[in-house]
UniProtKB/TrEMBL annotation, chain A:
CDD domains named among the record's database cross-references: TM_PBP2
UniProt-recorded name of the protein: ABC transporter permease
Transmembrane spans: 12-37, 72-91, 103-126, 155-177, 198-220, 256-278
Taxonomic source organism: Proteobacteria bacterium 228
Family: Belongs to the binding-protein-dependent transport system permease family. CysTW subfamily.
Automatic annotation (TrEMBL), chain B:
Organism superkingdom: Bacteria
Descriptive protein name: ABC transporter permease
Domain ABC transmembrane type-1 span(s) in chain numbering: 74-261
Taxonomic placement: Bacteria, Pseudomonadati, Pseudomonadota
Biological process per Gene Ontology, one example term: transmembrane transport
Pfam families with a match to the protein in the record: BPD_transp_1 (PF00528)
Listed GO CC annotations: plasma membrane
Localization (cell): Cell membrane
Record organism: Proteobacteria bacterium 228
From TrEMBL, chain C:
Organism for this UniProt entry: Pokkaliibacter plantistimulans
Name under which the protein is recorded: ABC transporter substrate-binding protein
Gene3D superfamilies on file: Periplasmic binding protein-like II
Keyword Membrane found: yes
Keywords, alphabetical: Membrane, Signal, Transmembrane, Transmembrane helix
PROSITE patterns found in the cross-reference section: TAT
PANTHER family attached to this UniProt entry: SPERMIDINE/PUTRESCINE-BINDING PERIPLASMIC PROTEIN, SPERMIDINE_PUTRESCINE-BINDING PERIPLASMIC PROTEIN
Record-linked InterPro entries: SBP, TAT_signal
SUPFAM superfamilies linked: Periplasmic binding protein-like II
Spans through the membrane: 35-55
């Protein structure tokens, strides 16, 4: 193995490294610097002040926003996990031909080709007071008043997240399931294990890496989101991402940068805990 | 529990089929709503009730809108998507090769790539925007937005390449070399054809992720909007079911493309079996 | 003006002038002609050639990049500018947040900024724009005094908030400080403005709405909405709080911290009681909320009301006893513009005031900054309906030629003078802006 300072590998990794340096490392550095700057309503004032952080860490807005965001992240994670695992299990163990598996998988991806913005707008006619779901429920006589909580609520926000991100859970879990040696399951069954025992003691442990990768996707995407919260929450609800977005739109870049740094640290801590549990590189 | 042999389906199969069907209904709910509402009459709005039924909005899609420019922004998004797709494929492939050996800094680069994936998009957008601002550079959809999109697509590309090479059997290469093939010949004739389907996957990921990217583009697109930004900008005036018509057409188009790919794949598979 | 246009409108205009008190006396014949002329303007704008003013020839094919919200970044305007001036106008429509952002942070990405006055108050001092020399504008004198000294008529009262004239002028060509009196250097040339009030679904509210306080009526629990753009939303909230008698303000446009606390406190209480269904941020959202019946009472823009109504859904732009909350926008020049491009920008902005665009905006339900030039491009019936509060003699068409109102309709809120004369405050940026935004965020997460 060539472990010199400049190997072929280094050359091969150069485009990736340069891109990340230019569009990831430098910008984050700029954010960190700017988070210590002062500002007024139209410009940045270079300096070194701690006000942005001081306000951020002592304000009830921050705590409330983090509370909301964690609530969304954890609910979405639980639902996508159960749903994603079931779907992946269905595709991996119940569908018998590769072609059918591919076909059903493709079927899952098609809605994602329509612009997210357009899909979001269409939730209103679906879930609204006079929307399809309410009309249907009213016509069947299941309810007498239209359900108000279907739209512009925590419910609708989490629903949209589940809609957007379940596939990110299905894919890695499905991937790991396909690599499980079927003889292990046969062996467990021959040894007299009940179906639920096989599921909990054989399949779930073997899917651990897929579950973790999916969880990382879902949790980080929900933590940083602002588009879904603002559209599905009808402006009544806020997440950390939305607060940052608001600060940016009001040109309060240093405040936004400070919030961003805190969010980044939060996400990184969450990930460090998860990476402890699995070596993502080996498990792909 | 599923039996991999025998034809009797366990009860769990039916439960899960029902669940899958419900999931499909849920996934396609918005798509269906869009589909129905895109046939609104000329005076219809974005919500129910339907105000007549017509093909008016499909026709309208190809005429000039009151605000915004589908043609220009679509072209920009497509060009950007194709550029990002090419770069993502090439960069990920190269990096994939790099990671087949150990090299100094490989861990740092790996975690940086992961960070790029999981850092909230709004942060990348803000960071690149501020950086360009401080350096006095003008942001453009083909420069700053291009970079912002790469920070989103490259991690997916690299992760897929890892998955590919982790499962790649090196004995093919060894055999080729034993037969006297040069390093380059081995790569070109053995490795690339074997991983071609996955590379196609990387390319498709690159294209679709870039085409629909919103948050990372928000502050870095320069004078002209990409399609998602344009759609968002259009909502500052009266938007019409023409948006839904656009959505329906994209869905139908992707359906057609995917069907075509599936058909082509099965045809080529049959041919291989014949020979 | 073309001959055909003149011939068609003159009789109608003449009879309208001859007897303003009783428009039913207008002869049937002139009515038909008037309606014909109207559709000629609305649909076949290409038919009107031979523009009376001769625009500079050397600016042909200069390209100018303009950005703003979708409200006024209309493709028809770019097309007409190409026709009349030969310049290529490249428009970018953004949401209102992105507008302020782009104006300040990417000054080289545009040549002309189409922004609101309260945004101008934030953007201009950043030094990214250059003021315009009014002596180069042939149509400067046609601009409504509202933008020059803040008074619609010599004896009207100046409204609170960031009134356009307070940020409309600077001391000199390279100054960044706003002038107290009109000078030769204008920051924005005003183009579009309006007075906002509450929009209601008359079929669903079930009672008369007379005051801003009505939005907090428990009867509308879960069916009300206000704007979620802090600088505008806080003014809505102030109108409401004042009308309810909960807060009395020294100056709504420049609140003290205590006044902000009280106002936001009131909003938070209402939010806890589930008074609001949603907050809207874009034109489109407000239209959808209303059209879908999610909301029956909300602060609203006049053209948004028209958009709901054009779908056959009852919607009313409801004048209130406390008056309106107004907003205004205009065109400003980027600092980097020089030479031929600068000349072209001047020509373009001057052209903007010369009437065609004004008439177009008037027909959408906004107001033109130079009303008298716009009048030349509207039929007497259109002028009567949109500006004078008269009953429409024929069908009123939108700029695209769709019927917006049937004959006999009277505009909600009445005439131009009636509406713009009752402005209580303008959208504003306060001294305590930073504090206000923080409190607003508190309200949103609560």
């Amino acid at each position: 193995m060539n472990r010199g300072l400049l190997s072929v590998s280094h050359l091969q990794a150069l485009p990736l490294s340069l891109t990340l340096l230019m569009f990831l490392v430098f910008p984050i550095a700029v954010i960190i610097i700017v988070s210590f700057w002062d500002y007024d309503s139209y410009q940045l004032i270079p300096g070194f002040i701690l006000d942005n952080y001081q306000y951020l860490l002592t304000s009830s807005v921050t705590w409330q926003a983090y509370l909301n965001t964690f609530k969304y992240a954890i609910s979405t994670w639980l639902i996508t996990l159960v749903l994603g695992f079931s779907i992946a299990y269905y595709l991996a163990f119940h569908i018998r031909t590769t072609r059918m598996q591919t076909l059903l998988f493709m079927l899952c991806t098609i809605p994602f080709f329509t612009s997210n913005i357009i899909r979001m707008i269409s939730w209103i006619p679906l879930l609204g007071r006079n929307g399809m779901v309410n009309s249907f429920l009213l016509s069947t006589g299941l309810i007498e008043q239209p359900l108000e909580f279907l739209l512009y609520s925590d419910f609708s926000i989490i629903l949209a997240y589940v809609h957007l991100y379940t596939l990110f859970m299905v894919t890695p879990i499905f991937n790991t399931m396909m690599r499980i040696d079927r003889r292990l399951i046969e062996a467990a069954r021959d040894a007299g294990a009940a179906p639920w025992q096989i599921l909990l003691m054989v399949i779930v442990p073997l899917c651990k890496s897929g579950i973790l990768i999916g969880s990382i996707f879902v949790l980080t995407m929900v933590m940083g989101d602002f588009v879904t919260v603002s559209i599905m929450g009808g402006g009544l609800h806020a997440s950390v991402g939305l607060i940052i977005k608001n600060e940016i739109s009001l040109l309060q870049y240093p405040a936004a940068a400070a919030s961003a740094v805190v969010l980044l640290i939060t996400v990184l801590i969450m990930l460090m805990v998860m990476f402890r549990l699995v070596d993502i590189r080996k498990e792909l | 529990m599923a039996r991999t042999t025998g034809n009797r389906r366990p009860r769990s199969f039916y439960w899960l089929t029902a669940l899958f069907a419900l999931f499909m209904l849920f996934l396609y709910g918005p798509t269906l709503t869009i589909g129905i509402l895109s046939f609104q009459g000329p005076n219809g709005g974005l919500t129910f009730p339907m105000n007549g039924v017509s093909l008016y909005w499909f026709h309208n899609l190809f005429t000039e809108q009151q605000v915004g420019d589908f043609g220009g922004s679509f072209t920009r998004s497509l060009l950007l998507g194709v550029g990002v797709m090419l770069c993502t494929t090439v960069f990920s492939l190269l990096a994939g090769f790099a990671y087949r050996r150990r090299f100094a800094g490989s861990n740092t680069l790996f975690y940086l790539t992961l960070a790029s994936l999981i850092i909230p998009s709004i942060l990348i957008s803000l960071g690149i925007g501020l950086m360009f601002d401080r350096l006095g550079w003008a942001p453009h959809w083909y420069s700053s937005a291009f970079g912002a999109h790469l920070t989103w697509t490259l991690p997916f590309g690299l992760l897929i390449m890892f998955a590919v090479f982790n499962r790649f059997n090196p004995s093919f290469e060894a055999a080729a070399r034993d037969l006297g093939a040069s390093h380059w010949q081995t790569v070109r004739l053995i490795v690339l054809p074997l991983i071609a389907p996955s590379l196609l996957g990387v390319a498709l990921f690159g294209l679709t992720l870039s085409y629909d990217e919103f948050a990372r583009t928000l502050m870095v697109s320069g004078s002209f909007n990409t399609l998602p930004l344009e759609l968002f900008g259009m909502t500052t005036n009266v938007t019409t079911p023409v948006l839904y018509a656009l959505g329906t057409l994209t869905t139908v188009f992707s359906f057609a493309v995917i069907t075509l790919i599936v058909v082509l794949m099965s045809v080529s598979r049959q041919r291989q079996q014949h020979h | 003006m073309t001959q055909q246009y003149d011939e068609a409108t003159t009789p109608a205009a003449a009879s309208a002038e001859a007897d303003t008190s009783n428009s039913s006396l207008i002869s049937r014949r002139s009515l038909i002609k008037g309606a014909g002329a109207l559709s000629a303007v609305a649909v076949g704008s290409g038919a009107i050639t031979g523009f009376p003013m001769i625009w500079a020839q050397n600016i042909k094919n200069v390209t100018l990049r303009q950005f703003g919200t979708g409200v006024s970044n209309l493709n028809d305007i770019a097309k007409k500018a190409k026709e009349d001036l030969g310049i290529n106008l490249e428009l970018t429509a953004l949401d209102s947040d992105a507008v302020a952002q782009r104006a300040v942070t990417q000054p080289n990405s545009y040549d002309i900024a189409d922004i609101e006055y309260w945004i101008c108050k934030k953007v201009f001092p950043a030094g990214v724009m250059q003021p315009m020399n009014v002596e180069r504008m042939k149509n400067f004198s046609k601009i409504s005094p509202l933008f020059i000294n803040g008074k619609l008529t010599p004896d009207s009262k100046i409204a609170q908030g960031t009134a356009p004239h307070t940020v409309g002028f600077v001391e000199s060509a390279d100054s960044k400080t706003f002038a107290k009196e009109p000078t030769q250097w204008m920051t924005l040339i005003p183009t579009i403005y309006n007075a906002d009030t509450l929009g209601i679904r008359p079929d669903l509210v079930g009672r008369d709405i007379t005051t801003w306080a009505d939005i907090m009526d428990p009867a509308f629990k879960g069916k009300a909405s206000i704007l979620n753009i802090p600088a505008i939303g806080i003014m809505d909230a102030a109108m409401i709080a004042e009308a309810m008698g909960k807060v009395s303000y020294g100056d709504k446009g420049n609140m003290t911290k205590e006044e902000i606390d009280k106002t936001i406190g009131l909003l938070m209480e209402a939010k806890k009681a589930s008074q609001f269904r949603a907050f809207w941020k874009s034109f489109d959202e407000s239209v959808n909320l209303m059209a879908s019946g999610e909301v029956v009472i909300q602060s609203m823009w006049s053209p948004a009301v028209a958009a709901v109504r054009s779908r056959g859904i009852a919607c009313k732009y409801q004048p209130l006893k406390e008056g309106y909350r107004a907003w205004g926008g205009g065109l400003g020049l980027a600092k980097h513009l020089t030479g031929l491009e600068l000349d072209a920008a001047y020509e373009y902005i001057d052209w903007y005031l010369s009437g065609w665009v004004g008439a177009y905006l008037n027909r959408q339900g906004y107001y033109s900054a130079a009303p008298e030039t716009a009048k030349n491009f509207m039929s007497a019936d259109e002028w009567g309906y949109w500006m004078e509060g008269k009953a429409a003699a024929g069908d009123i068409l939108s700029p695209e030629g769709k019927v917006m109102e049937k004959a006999g309709a009277v505009r909600d809120g009445g005439s131009y003078a009636e509406r713009m004369g009752h402005v209580a405050c303008w959208n504003s940026v306060m001294d305590e802006n930073k504090y206000m935004v923080r409190k607003w965020n508190e309200f949103i997460v609560s």
